Amino acid sequence: MRQLSLSDLYHAARALQRVPHDERHGFCEELFWRAHVADKYVKRLQKLHPQWGDGSLRAAAMPYSCGPLQPQNVRDTWSCMAVILEALRDQSKVGEHSCAPERVFSSRNCAKDIASRLE
Question: Residue 84 sits in which domain range?
């Protein structure tokens, strides 16, 4: 996953607001995984991932954060930001987020495997 910016956090929080509270941690991990895979895809193939973009968290969250703005609940927004920051903290303890074996892709070849499946 590329380096984070405030835009990444904003779009990820907006995406998380559309998910039920008990599913937010899992969805956040899914967004991180998609950003990681897209980043590997871009680095390996020198083109944007067709679904998850440029490897940023913002690009991975965009399909879920777009649409009409919902009335903002400040507490819910901060709660979503906390979920993202907690997931980032947990990720930094483990090291760089890698493609999990249950995802069928090895971390070394995840971009290449995805590219071949899309062709």
Answer: 6-118
